[in-house]
């Protein structure tokens, strides 16, 4: 099932990417039918159109579809503002304990020696 989905998605992407090639291949494979039935200029055999008008029309429509930019729908974004006028309360912690906290010097934060880890000199 997974392989079937993968193959079908790849086929869809392939056809979308190479749609112009698919239109031209369809024209060359069905050239006689297009010239007899679908050609716009079939009443004018002196033009020797042979369905090229139909091919040009199909390619023009495909270019029009390719150039058509999809309309971006504006999504409704609900913003919730954070009110910082009041102190933030965290369950289990007292704000005064944060104020009395003494910050350690960076050399005291870890146990590894800092003299080994130096950035290269530019």
What key phrases describe this protein's structure?
elongated; 122 residues; mainly alpha; 46% helix
What does this structure look like?
- The protein has 122 residues and is mainly alpha-helical.
- It has a domain at 24-67.
- It is built from five helices and no strands.
- Helix 2 packs antiparallel against helix 4.
- The protein is elongated.
Using only C-alpha atoms, the radius of gyration works out to 35 Å
The SS-based structural class is mainly alpha
Overall mean pLDDT score?
A: 77
Q: What's the SSE pattern? A: HHHHH
Biggest sheet statistics: none
Uncertain ranges: none
Q: How many β-strands, per DSSP?
A: 0
Total helical segments: 5
- Helix proportion: 40-55%
Shape: elongated
Distance between the termini: 57 Å
Strand content: under 5%
Give a quick precis of the structure:
By secondary structure, this protein is mostly helical. The chain has helices at 2-17, 19-29, 31-38, 52-67, 95-99.
Question: What topology emerges from the helices and strands here?
Answer:
Layout: H1 2-17, H2 19-29, H3 31-38, H4 52-67, H5 95-99
Helix pairs in contact: 2-4
């Amino acid at each position: 099932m997974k392989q079937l989905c993968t193959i079908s998605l790849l086929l869809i992407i392939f056809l979308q990417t190479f749609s112009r090639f698919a239109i031209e291949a369809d024209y060359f494979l069905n050239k006689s039918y297009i010239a007899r039935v679908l050609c716009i200029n079939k009443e004018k055999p002196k033009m020797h159109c042979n369905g090229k008008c139909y091919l040009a029309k199909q390619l023009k429509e495909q270019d029009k579809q390719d150039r058509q930019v999809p309309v971006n729908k504006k999504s409704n974004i609900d913003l919730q503002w954070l009110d910082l006028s009041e102190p933030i309360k965290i369950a289990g912690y007292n704000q005064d304990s944060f104020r009395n906290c003494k910050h350690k010097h960076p050399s005291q934060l870890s146990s590894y020696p800092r003299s080994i880890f130096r950035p290269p000199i530019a």
